[in-house]
Every structure is written in C-alpha cells, then in structure tokens.
C-alpha cells in the first residue's frame, strides 16, 4: 500500500543479476542465461514508459566483469551489440533517448561507434531516458569526475572553493538526470557492487531473490509500490516530513 501523498520514482536503476544461475538452474548453457536476460529488458522499459518514469539505468557490464572468462566476455559484448541494434527503432517508437555510461577505452572501436550512433539517433527523444552501464564502476565514475574538475582548476576555469556536492554532481555520469530514487537488485545478493555510488546516495533499495531472467513487470510494479510506501526523509525527522506534506496541501 503506497502513501497517499507519495510520488512515483523519477529515476530507477537496476542491477540485472542472476543470468548464470538461471542457466544453471534450468540446465542451460551459461550463455543462454544471458540471452534470456536480454529479453527481459524490453517489457520493463515499456512499463517504465507507460507509468511515466523519466529515467531507467541498467547495469549491463561492470568494470569488474572484465575479469570473467574471455568466452563469456565476448558473448556479453556480442549481446550488447545485438541489443543496441534492436533498441534503436524501439527507442524511436517510444520516444526514448538511449545513452551509455562507463569507460569506453576497453571497448572495441566498432562497439563504441555503434553506441555513439545510437545516442545521436535517439538524442531528440524526450519521453524517457534509458541508460545502459557498460564497463562501468561507481568508483571509476567518481575518479573521472575528480580528474575533470582538477583539470579545470589547473586551467583556472574553477576555483577550489567553488567545488561542492552540487558542482561535483555535474561531472559524474548522468549529471543532467534526476538522482536515482529506487535501486533494484535481482538475484538475491545484498550489495551495490560499485554501481552508481554517487547518483544513488539517497536511493531506496529493493532486493529480490528473483533471478533477472525471471523478473517480470508484475514484480517491478510491486517494487514501485514498496518504494511509494516508504518515507524518504533525507536526514529530516518524520515529524518534519509530515509537516511539510500538510503545508503543501
């Protein structure tokens, strides 16, 4: 049951975990788990669009995933290529901008070109933003933001005393989008795994035992309802939050 005055999340992030365990559970080849997981994303994206969520960010491949067996890495890169090609016409249909975050220096030139092309083709869409995190890590993200700021300080475009959390937020990935309101992790683990550490600082967390290939729009809707049933205080007391709600009425 959601709060009467609760608002739906503007930005949802998902750690899509459990593909390999799904394959093992169903006696499939390891790669089949990733293929099944790839097919789950479309209905989730469409549901987000339907309920007017403005941003969805999904964790497709982490900085640490480069340590996986090369055969699995190659498959994941191939599936990412397929996904991007399939998504471009769907993004046009639903007026969704497709973006990517992460360290592209380790990606192939062909994949980087495809990602850039997809971003340019869909940049004019304003109904929603779908961001796919590839070769991404939250600590990398914060470090690259610090590097950019350091360069601007060195070139005297910024003064050190100008640096605060608001300014820093403009240099991390997704700085132009709302902060993450709800972060969902499938697959039964209870950790952030270096995902959107800055952007999800005040996010509500939803963990589920459901493996990603089995995650449905029904459970996604339940996660939204759980979010709306929580009181987000941002350091304030419950009494302050209730008083502010009364004042707005």
Strand residues, percent: 5-15%
CATH superfamily membership, which one? Decaprenyl diphosphate synthase-like
Please name the CATH architecture. Answer: 3-Layer(aba) Sandwich
Number of domains as seen in the coordinates? 1
Let me know the largest β-sheet.
6 strands, parallel
| C-alpha Rg (nearest Å) | 19 Å
Mean pLDDT: 92
Q: Determine the number of helices (DSSP H or I, runs of at least 4 residues).
A: 8
Euclidean distance between termini CA atoms: 21 Å
Q: CATH class, anyone?
A: Alpha Beta
- Largest sheet: spatial strand order: 3-4-2-1-5-6
Structural class determined from secondary elements: alpha/beta
> Would you identify the regions where 5 or more consecutive residues have pLDDT less than 50?
1-5
Which percent bin holds the helix content?
40-55%
Given the C-alpha coordinates, what overall shape results?
A: globular
Could you name the CATH topology? Answer: Undecaprenyl pyrophosphate synthetase
Question: What is the topological layout?
Answer:
Elements: E1 11-15, H1 19-25, H2 30-50, E2 55-62, H3 70-94, E3 96-101, H4 109-122, E4 128-136, H5 138-154, H6 165-169, E5 182-185, E6 204-207, H7 217-228, H8 238-248
Parallel strand pairs: 1-2, 1-5, 2-4, 3-4, 5-6
Please characterize this protein's 3D structure.
The chain is of the alpha/beta class and 249 residues long. It has one domain (11-248): Undecaprenyl pyrophosphate synthetase, CATH 3.40.1180. Helix content is 45%, strand content 14%. It contains 8 helices and 6 strands. The chain has helices spanning 19-25, 30-50, 70-94, 109-122, 138-154, 165-169, 217-228, 238-248; strands at 11-15, 55-62, 96-101, 128-136, 182-185, 204-207. It has a 6-stranded parallel β-sheet, sandwiched between helices. Helix 4 (109-122) links the parallel strand 3 (96-101) and strand 4. Helix 1 crosses helix 2 and helix 2 packs parallel to helix 3. The longest helix is centred in the first third of the chain and has 25 residues, at 70-94. It starts with 10 loop residues before the first strand and ends with a helix. Its EC number is 2.5.1.31. InterPro entries: UPP_synth-like, UPP_synth-like_CS, UPP_synth-like_sf.
